Amino acid sequence: MPPDSGGAPAVARADTPQSDTAPTATPTDTPGPQTADATPPRSDDDDKPESMDRYETTVRIEKGDTLESVLRDMDFAPDEIRKAAAALKPVLKGARLPVGETITLQVQAPQESDGKPTLQALVIRPEARREITLERSAEGTFSARQRTFEVVPKLVRASGVVKGSLRGSADAAGIPPSVLAEMLRAFSWDVNLQYDVKGGDRFAVLIEQAYTTDGRLVSPGRVLWAQLTTGGGKNTYNVYRFKPARGAEFFYYGNGQSVVKSLLRTPMGLNRLSSGFGMRSHPIMGFTAMHTGVDFAAAYGTPILAAGAGTVVAAGPYGGYGNWVKIDHGGGIATGYAHMARYAPGIRPGARVHQGQVVGFVGSTGMSTGPHLHYELHQKGRPVNPLSARATQRAGLAGKDLERFRAVVNKTDRARDGAELIAAR
Ligand SMILES: [Zn+2]
Q: Which residues, in sequence order, are CB contacts of 213 under 8 Å at separation 6+?
């Protein structure tokens, strides 16, 4: 059929894209008299210049705003505000207006110089998945309706090179802070985040996020896969999220080994540590014949964590070590923590501790020139280098779990190749 033989209007709309699908009828497709103020301006198809006496405005919600305060700021009459608020109340259900979210309003400017504007329509999104529209009828009454958006998962990936701090580099790559925290935790048993991560190291992550069907982010997401390359490409750590039949969902290396080891690599609160590492310039001591532990620089008061489960065998002042805690992990392995500002509650000789439990707080007691953690690892009574010792064991997947895990690895690897790149900042 030739394009001009049907019932289509002779003059095609300039903004109608050429496509195979039939165009949907919109009010402007309907021939007829066009009165500028017969209908409120439509954002999707209105290409007329905006009328000065009827306009659309989008305002950002600030801390402490209520719907009423926003409308008052826009100079609507008190009666108008009361009616609008009353119509919105049943659908808004006292929802707190999220700071940073926007309200879009259609406003009719006052007819006289001393008059008040009138509210024609208003759109607000109290939550990402809920949109509320308030409209004024020809009679001047308000009615509100609600639209709920479905939430769908979406895979996104991000990657980058460490420049300055890992936190700053991850942020620049568009990785949300909660996702970075999950990555750091997954790597924390094998990578010392203060010693091992340096400028030029690489990171990458596959994230499952949740979006509404119209593209609003509902949750910043969870890590499905993450990779960290350290030592100028020498060490690459690839972790996959997996849930064994019995046990909690966590991260495993590609060969099915758990990332969790009997001892933490960095026995400190990671949040504080990660905010600073990569930016330090003052020297911290590594393991030598004269210095039988390693020093971690950290802010005064940073939590110190039990590197592994065990029994406290010492918790008290110990010469130049200042306030000192020693934990026996069994199998001839023990760890020690020096220069603490103070001990955590319940940390006394004989107490049982779990891996990751706070045992004390970073200080500078004993022979110390500034706040840091001096950390020692003992094997059969002798101090060894905690950064290189292979003193720890880890669990692995087996049987049906390992089979399922291999399928998850394949699926994840394929999904990663097809995932969209996250919007970098
Ligand atoms: Zn030291």
A: 149, 150, 151, 152
User: Ligand 1 centre and the CA of 360: distance in Å?
Assistant: 16
Model pTM score:
0.63
Cα(148) to ligand 1 centroid in Å equals 58
Instruction: Give pLDDT tens digits for 182-237.
Output: 999 899 888 877 778 889 999 999 999 999 998 888 888 999 999 999 988 899 99
- Name the burial class of residue 288, with classes exposed (0-12), middle (13-18) and buried (19+) by CB atoms within 10 angstroms of its CB: exposed
Q: Which residues make up the environment of ion ligand 1, defined by Cβ < 5 Å? A: 295, 374
Q: What average pLDDT score do residues 32-40 get?
A: 40
If one looks up domain 49-148 in CATH, what number appears?
A: 3.10.450.350
Distances (CA, A) of 324 to 27, 72, 129, 370: 78, 61, 52, 16
Identify the CATH homologous superfamily for domain 270-392.
Glucose Permease (Domain IIA) (2.70.70.10)
